[in-house]
Amino acid sequence: MVDARNLIGQGEPYSDGDLDLMFAALMDLELVQIQRALIDHMNGKDGRWRPNPHYIREAMKARASIAWVSADEAWARIPKPGPRASLTDWRGKTVTDYRTGNWPPCLLNQATTEAMALAAPYLEQEPPDVNAARMAFRACYERIVEQEKLANRAPVYRVSGGGTHEERQMLLQQGVEQGLLPISAAPVAGQLEYNPAGQARIAQEMAKIKALVAPKGKE
Fold first, then answer.
1. pLDDT digits over 158-206, tens only?
2. Distance CA 202, CA 154 (A)
3. Less crowded by CB within 10 Å, the N or C end of the chain?
4. Are residues 154 and 89 in the same domain?
5. How far apart are CA 127 and CA 134, in angstroms?
């Protein structure tokens, strides 16, 4: 807070009493949340004013509201198991048999992790029920996101399990480039072993994921 005020250069310096009160007002937050909020505040419309608890919470609220995507977009961003086969369900309709493939690694946050845990069994049952899976995912995701928004919490991403080492390292790099993961999560140079066939397959999968998450009208 002191460093941000000094950088902005506006308002009287904080007294020890000011800092004690601000600490008490923000003690329910984690340090990293306050640091991000301070950066957002300095870069925002009120960045010319020295920060206080109100500005911190407003910045956190703004970050949380824009960071969460809709349930349908979150569902589309998660790659489903492959390779996959087809089978006929009880209605005589051809559906995808997700049980024949392995779940590829992907970027998950606290909402998508719990929502996919609830939805996955519907995809893996016999026969798979994609509609039920999507509905279960949507309901669970929206409930958790509402709770997170009320707490002014933005998504916290991680790389899911499964996949090869190269695939997970590529996802880490992608998450850092998109601002979803901290810079410290970026793969260390040399961790990716070069494998022409594997790299080509990973590049194809990454292109599919990027196409899903790219804003409309942009590549």
1. 888 777 788 888 888 888 777 677 777 777 654 444 444 545 555 565 5
2. 29
3. C
4. yes
5. 15
